[in-house]
Write a structure and sequence with these properties.
The protein is an alpha+beta fold. Helices cover 18% and strands 47% of the residues. It has a five-stranded antiparallel beta sheet with strand order 1-5-4-3-2.
Length: 72
């Protein structure tokens, strides 16, 4: 049994893979372990539970955070 997410939900940081896990009114970075990828989905084998909610487009959140930091 494994969870599957859209590939856009997972960001590769070299050896580590992260998602943005919903935390209250925002998101926090959360490390996950991935397995297979098939078409537009990637298998999450460790790090998430069924009720967890993640951002669908993690790259968008990373780009947005960088933009905000640059323009402060």
């Amino acid at each position: 049994n494994a969870l599957w997410l859209p590939k856009e939900s997972v960001v590769s940081l070299g050896l580590d893979k992260i998602v943005f896990l919903k935390d209250g009114g925002g998101f926090k970075v959360h490390k996950v372990e991935t397995g297979l990828d098939y078409k537009n989905r990637i298998q999450i084998i460790n790090g998430l539970n069924t009720p967890d909610s993640v951002a669908i487009n993690a790259q968008f959140l990373m780009d947005s955070e960088s933009f905000i930091k640059l323009n402060q």
